[in-house]
Write the structure tokens for this entry.
Amino acid sequence: MGFLKREGDAGQPEDAGSDAAGQAPPDALAGSRPVATGYAAGSTEGLTGHARERLTQNRDGLFTSDLSVNEFVMVDEAGFEPLGLVMGSSVYHIGLQTTGYKTSQELSVLTQAMYNARQLAMTRLEEEADLLGADGVVGVRITIGYYEWGADMAEFVAVGTAVKHRDGVLHRAPSGRPFTSALSGQEFGTLLRFGHRPVGMVMGNCVYHVAHQSMRQSMRNIGQNVELDLFTQALYDAREFAVERMQAEAQEAGARGVVGVKVSQGSFIWGGHVIEFFALGTAVIRSEQPPQRPVPAYVFDLGQ
């Protein structure tokens, strides 16, 4: 795999890395988080001509949606109408990354590649929603696919349903772009009912190399119940960096908080001791509309 290259271990002491307890060198994480690609309202630079044609054609009110029946009903009850299925994609080449066999550290080249590719896909999804005149996109999901074109290439796809408030109440993000939400239709309806609304999906990631133990360390652990501090600290740090970067995005969006957070992990095609932690959630703010408190319902058992 051309994007992951291990440095030689010549000259390293046998227990190299053990005193660091899996922590990255001080300069390994210079810079708070990956750089996001920009979004400009009305921009369609990333869209193909066919996509622009599909989205601008008049379909006499016909919409397409990946919402389930229950989600569709809840979104409709919340006052929103689906406008169409929107998507964005990016086929991305992952650059060369060098790492040490006995060093726990963030792999900044891989972190940046994975973050930028997802961000490009999300930007194009927002552009499609913008063309439809949508307030936002609900039920967004992001997937990664690999093809036979090369071991160092991957496609990132974002898909969701563009929606618009039927009474013309603007629900876009404070930045003016359509909001995005990873919440289901039911969760979206509940959020609005209780006086909050989404402003956008926020994410953070960290691709991390976990150091290998030396032969001496491995021999010490044979037959014993003992915590592997080197591995624990490395994985702990990597998760923290991902969540920290997600929170930084939420702060930039002026959000009150983040709901529906999921932290996933995967090693994809990088091989052993390399893992990515990916944190994804929906940033929310208080709605301008007053919350609709549910009316208590009384149920009587007539069979008694």
User: Anything to note?
Assistant: The beta strands are 4-7, 80-93, 97-100, 105-106, 136-145, 153-165, 179-180, 196-209, 257-266, 274-286. The chain has one domain: 48-286. The longest strand covers residues 80-93.
